[in-house]
DNA sequence: TGATTGTCTTTCGTCTACAGTCCACGGCGC
DNA sequence: GCGCCGTGGACTGTAGACGAAAGACAATCA
């Protein structure tokens, strides 16, 4: 038997770095979302390739994916430019985000089981703890995980994928403005959990819609300095 | 002078076909949506390249774009396979489609001007004419243009882009089943136009939701043979 | 006879090279 | 001084080539 001669649990599994293009994609997305690459900047393939230690080809493929997802604009025969967000576009993204999140809340209310609800409450508790500790980064992270969990409970993969993309871009647009709604946001999360527990689809939809609209208003209030 | 040696009117060279990858993308998408390439089929890069008369590179880029949009599955170190739709996924797509279309109807009701409404009525008239003439292809085309016009009147580019992708895939999933709801569909369109004219957002939302739900049911009824 | 292993083919992933295109800069004429 | 044209450089678009991983098949050994 083979298993006798092998250390059973500790097979290190041969970490495969995966396709280069994916790593380049994530690296570039990280650079864009962190504003290391500013909007409007010209991205030169050979430059990025040299900087990342790879050839131009994976860089090209990553850029094209970023293009289809709206992170960069690919002007023909000229190259890639980091997308420049406009007020109008940001507003449209927020509209769509509200829509998708509200539907997710409705589906979550329809489908969630007790385990899922328990998970939501656990995330909520952690989020409140982070807020109490003035851990802004932690609170933001828990907020994202909370919404992701709602999405997961909704059980609609298509919806989840669209929402993930929209969410990421919304966050990018509004990261320059500091955001911390603190306690109020988590109070609304608690109310949402209650609605989900009661399987009240309409109330869950309404609460999530109001919740994201609150966030939208607070974003707008801060972005118009 | 150079011009004397040239055939004066026949300089065909001005038409720029645009990047090759885009043409390959559209060609492949056409082949997939028309079922010339069946779901599950293994797409070999060099084969496609040879068939289309280009190099592998544009084919690769087109395949990756098709991958991010959900038309093909790209298995690492193995290649591209035409995505195989499942019942569950189709249902999720229909849910999202209903959501996006209903929101578009709401926004159209809020924003549409008289010119837009006139355009809708014109499209509706043409659609009814096609139905009366038993022109199924024409009716389907007019239906698509009607919904696209609603989307345009909504004035939300982000929403429109998402809806376009979802719509295309929904149509792909359900093209094997013959679809013709005929007159009833256009009656509902008329009702929707009335709601938009009255600027009644709630009624427009409800009508569009019911409309796409009807379509969904008729799809389901036919697909479960 | 069955499983295992070695090899072999196919295909992808990546790199390098070349041609085409666009932009900027400088010279020239007006 | 101002505008237009030609030229140079830089970058992208495309093609072709090489190395590597995965699957298939046959030969070998228990």
From TrEMBL, chains A, B:
Residues annotated as domain HTH gntR-type? 18-85
Q: Which protein, by its recorded name, is this?
A: GntR family transcriptional regulator
Gene3D superfamilies with a match to the protein in the record: GntR ligand-binding domain-like, Winged helix-like DNA-binding domain superfamily/Winged helix DNA-binding domain
Q: What is the lineage of its organism?
A: Bacteria, Bacillati, Actinomycetota, Actinomycetes, Kitasatosporales
Keywords, A to Z?
A: DNA-binding, Transcription, Transcription regulation
Q: Where is the signal peptide?
A: none
Q: Pfam families from the entry?
A: FCD (PF07729), GntR (PF00392)
């Amino acid at each position: 038997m083979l298993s006798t001669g092998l250390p059973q649990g500790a097979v290190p599994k041969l970490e495969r770095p995966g396709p280069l293009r994916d790593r380049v994609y994530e690296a570039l997305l990280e650079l864009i979302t962190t504003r290391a690459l500013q909007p409007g900047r010209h991205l030169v393939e050979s430059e990025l390739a040299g900087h990342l230690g790879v050839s131009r080809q994976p860089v090209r493929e990553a850029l094209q994916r970023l293009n289809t997802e709206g992170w960069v604009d690919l002007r023909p025969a000229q190259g890639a430019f980091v997308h420049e967000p406009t007020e109008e576009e940001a507003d449209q993204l927020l509209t769509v985000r509200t829509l998708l999140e509200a539907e997710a809340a409705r589906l979550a209310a329809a489908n969630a089981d007790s385990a899922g609800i328990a998970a939501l409450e656990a995330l909520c508790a952690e989020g409140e703890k982070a807020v109490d500790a003035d851990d802004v980064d932690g609170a933001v992270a828990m907020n994202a995980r909370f919404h992701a969990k709602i999405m997961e409970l909704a059980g609609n993969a298509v919806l989840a994928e669209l929402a993930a993309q929209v969410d990421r871009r919304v966050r990018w647009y509004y990261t320059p403005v500091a955001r911390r709604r603190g306690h109020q946001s988590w109070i609304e999360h608690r109310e949402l959990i209650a609605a989900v527990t009661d399987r009240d689809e309409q109330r869950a939809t309404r609460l999530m819609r109001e919740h994201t609209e609150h966030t939208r208003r607070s974003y707008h209030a801060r972005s118009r300095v």
